[in-house]
């Protein structure tokens, strides 16, 4: 990302009282909403989640430029969410992998 | 984003899009997550929380020296007294700009931000560049963002944490003494409360 991109979007967008679009894609809002629900129902605290989020962001930042994907905040968020669910044995990583592979293999035009 | 509204079909099981869908479905099936609650929370963060909450506090502080003093002394008390939603999850401190002193907020490690007063943070606030550079060269970053400060103005950078979230109280623009609360609140942008802009002139 370049300096220009920092200045892109939000700053040049017309000011809105209620802020701007907070999520850029539906999956980002789902990732956020699922996390917020887990916090509200007491599975873990925002502080517990933050520890994993810092680790996920730190892992991206400490990877060499050529080896890492483009910066994406909500990708780090989902990694942190997977990590805390695995740590708390709420969702096993292998189980998630199997479901993700099954979804990725769905035929085109499936019903979301 | 490359996907989202188009009909692109994600076929990589490692993509965050596919993993998030799989993760949510599994948690719903296990009874750990409830879709209706998830949707209500998304709705709340998209529509109910936002910078207008913080802007009203700033405008009130401009109108009332007593309110300003309370806000700077104990923002948590004021936020609770004003019955602001979401306040229970964070300790908030307000940093007032004044002649010769400018405050700016960052979260160097992740994205901590006063959700109750500003909603969720903008993308640039979460970017690796902003988080690293505003600490190292705040004056230059602010200048690039369109806020040039006098050379003798002291810049104070506040690093947010899970314990403490910061909000900047911008200076009231000159010639706005006759405005009422709503009119003043309209001058207070989100960016001015992060400290990367000034309050707008009417």
Report what the structure shows:
The complex is a heterodimer of chains A (112) and B (202). By secondary structure, chain A is an all-alpha fold. Chain A has helices at 3-7, 26-40, 46-61, 73-87, 93-104. In chain A, helix 2 (26-40) packs parallel to helix 4 and helix 3 packs across helix 4 (73-87). The longest helix of chain A is centred in the middle third of the chain and has 16 residues, at 46-61. In chain A, 29% of the residues are buried. Chain B is of the alpha/beta class. Chain B folds into two domains: 16-47, no CATH class; 50-194, Alpha-Beta Complex (Nitrile Hydratase, Chain A), CATH 3.90.330.10. Chain B has eleven helices and four strands, in the order αααααββααααββαα. Chain B has helices spanning 16-29, 35-48, 51-63, 65-73, 75-81, 115-118, 123-126, 128-136, 138-144, 181-185, 190-194; strands at 91-96, 101-106, 154-159, 164-169. The two termini of chain B are 35 Å apart. The interface between A and B is large, with 64 and 64 residues.
Brief characterization of the structure:
The complex is a heterodimer of chains A (112) and B (202). With 112 residues, chain A is an all-alpha fold.
Reconstruct the topology from this structure.
The complex is a heterodimer of chains A (112) and B (202).
Chain A (H helix, E strand, L loop, with lengths): L2 H5 L18 H15 L5 H16 L11 H15 L5 H12 L8
Helix pairs in contact in A: 2-4, 3-4
Chain B lengths: L15 H14 L5 H14 L2 H13 L1 H9 L1 H7 L9 E6 L4 E6 L8 H4 L4 H4 L1 H9 L1 H7 L9 E6 L4 E6 L11 H5 L4 H5 L8
Helix pairs in contact in B: 3-4, 4-5, 8-9
Helix/strand structural class of chain A: mainly alpha
Rg of chain B, rounded, reads 20 Å
Oligomer: heterodimer
Total beta-strand segments of chain B: 4
What is the total number of structural domains of chain B?
Answer: 2
Gyration radius over CA of chain A: 17 Å
Global mean pLDDT of chain A? 82
Please give the alpha-carbon distance between the first and last residues of chain B.
35 Å
Return the string of H and E elements of chain B. Answer: HHHHHEEHHHHEEHH
Q: How is the main sheet of chain A built?
A: none
**What fraction of residues of chain A sit in β-strands?**
under 5%
The major sheet of chain B is characterized as: 2 strands, parallel
CATH level 1 class label of the largest domain in chain B? Alpha Beta
């Amino acid at each position: 990302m370049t300096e220009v991109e920092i200045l892109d979007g939000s700053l040049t967008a017309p000011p809105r009282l209620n802020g701007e679009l907070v999520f850029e894609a539906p999956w980002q809002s789902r990732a956020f909403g699922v996390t917020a629900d887990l916090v509200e129902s007491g599975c873990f605290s925002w502080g517990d989640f933050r520890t994993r989020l810092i680790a996920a962001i730190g892992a991206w930042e400490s990877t060499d430029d050529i080896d890492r994907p483009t910066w994406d905040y909500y990708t780090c968020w989902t990694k942190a969410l997977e990590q805390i669910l695995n740590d708390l044995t709420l969702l096993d990583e292998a189980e998630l992998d199997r479901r993700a592979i099954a979804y990725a293999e769905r035929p085109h035009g499936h019903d979301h | 984003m490359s996907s989202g509204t188009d009909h692109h079909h994600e076929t990589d099981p490692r993509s965050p899009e596919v993993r998030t869908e799989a993760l949510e479905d599994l948690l719903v099936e296990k009874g750990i997550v409830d879709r209706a609650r998830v949707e209500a929370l998304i709705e709340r963060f998209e529509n109910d929380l936002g910078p207008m909450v913080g802007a009203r506090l700033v405008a009130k502080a401009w109108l009332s020296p007593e309110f300003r003093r309370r806000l700077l002394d104990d923002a948590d008390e004021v936020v609770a007294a004003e019955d602001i939603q979401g306040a229970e999850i964070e300790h908030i401190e307000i940093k007032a700009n004044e002649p010769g002193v400018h405050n700016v907020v960052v979260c160097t490690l992740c994205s901590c931000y006063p959700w109750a007063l500003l909603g969720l943070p903008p993308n640039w606030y979460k970017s690796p560049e902003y988080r690293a550079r505003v600490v190292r060269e705040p004056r230059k970053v602010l200048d690039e963002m369109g806020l040039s400060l006098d050379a003798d103005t002291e810049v104070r950078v506040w690093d947010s944490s899970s314990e403490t979230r910061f909000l900047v109280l911008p200076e009231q623009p000159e010639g706005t003494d006759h405005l009422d609360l709503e009119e003043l609140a309209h001058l207070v942008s989100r960016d001015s409360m992060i400290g990367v802009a000034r309050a707008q002139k009417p």
